Q: What sequence folds into this?
């Protein structure tokens, strides 16, 4: 069964002007989030030059059920959103490959959408429809995770590592891993630092020693995807609604969005040269 039909649709006007096209963005939300949480981020990206945006229709109950049903239903919903974003790109971005932004576990979902068949009977194979995957605080490395880390590893990360490890499709897809060192975990520190230490332990186990840096939930070391371009912010907290600015706040977006655009546009130029036979 094919969940996403990636047959050629729409126009490919972008091939003639890859340096001037504006991206259509697909946002894949994180663990226990819901689409309305990303409304402010959508507005900020549109204000900064995105041509259009689609947020995957994945809600908090979908993540809660993933422990029982696996990541398949979430990938299917995300694939439907990808299809909508591809159609939108045909109208507003000349049919250019998408710029995918995956927050938290949504970054793992983005990688899974590129895999030919990550799950039995579910073939997504959307690599040609994606120009860049930008992950915001995504826990890519969960080998020794406990608690939430083990849950995400078992449900999604281990599947992604088996089917599309690291920056698997580079340079056909650009990869950017964004993380933050806003909170230093310390079992003897402030309340925030003690909580950070406990949460880091839940993600990477005993590798979370005192002094481990992260965004309050995911340590820097866990958010680095092998082979991807790396960016570490100074003050972004993991998720929307947290006590402080997060990856989708103005100051953070002003740092990572230009690099995301550069990463995405370099892939467009690479593919355009290949199409011309250069």
A:
């Amino acid at each position: 069964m094919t969940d996403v039909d990636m047959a050629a649709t729409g126009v490919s006007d972008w091939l003639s002007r890859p340096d001037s096209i504006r991206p259509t963005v697909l946002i894949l939300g994180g663990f226990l989030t819901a689409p309305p949480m990303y409304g402010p981020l959508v507005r900020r990206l549109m204000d900064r030059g995105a041509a259009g945006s689609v947020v995957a229709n994945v809600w908090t109950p979908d993540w809660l059920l993933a422990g029982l049903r696996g990541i398949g239903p979430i990938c299917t919903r995300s694939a439907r959103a990808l299809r909508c974003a591809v159609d939108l790109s045909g109208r507003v971005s000349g049919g250019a490959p998408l710029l995918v932004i995956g927050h938290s576990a949504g970054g793992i979902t983005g990688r899974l959408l590129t895999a030919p068949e990550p799950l039995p009977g579910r073939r997504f194979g959307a690599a040609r429809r994606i120009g860049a995957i930008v992950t915001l605080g995504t826990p890519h490395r969960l080998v020794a995770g406990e608690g939430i880390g083990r849950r995400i590893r078992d449900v999604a990360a281990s599947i992604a590592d088996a089917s599309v490890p690291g920056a698997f499709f580079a340079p056909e897809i650009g990869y950017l891993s964004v993380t933050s060192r806003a909170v230093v975990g310390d079992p003897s520190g402030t309340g925030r630092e003690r909580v950070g230490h406990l949460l880091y332990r839940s993600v990477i186990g005993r590798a979370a020693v005192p002094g481990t840096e992260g965004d309050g939930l995911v340590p820097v070391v866990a958010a680095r995807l092998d082979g991807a371009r790396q960016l570490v912010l100074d003050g972004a907290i993991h998720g929307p609604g947290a006590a402080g600015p997060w990856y989708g706040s103005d100051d953070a977006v002003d740092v990572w969005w230009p690099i995301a655009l550069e990463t995405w546009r370099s892939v467009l130029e690479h593919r355009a040269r290949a199409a011309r036979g250069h």
Q: What stands out?
A: The helical segments are 39-47, 60-69, 72-92, 106-113, 148-163, 191-204, 250-275. The chain is about 35% helix and 15% strand. The first helix runs from residue 39 to 47. The radius of gyration is 18 Å.
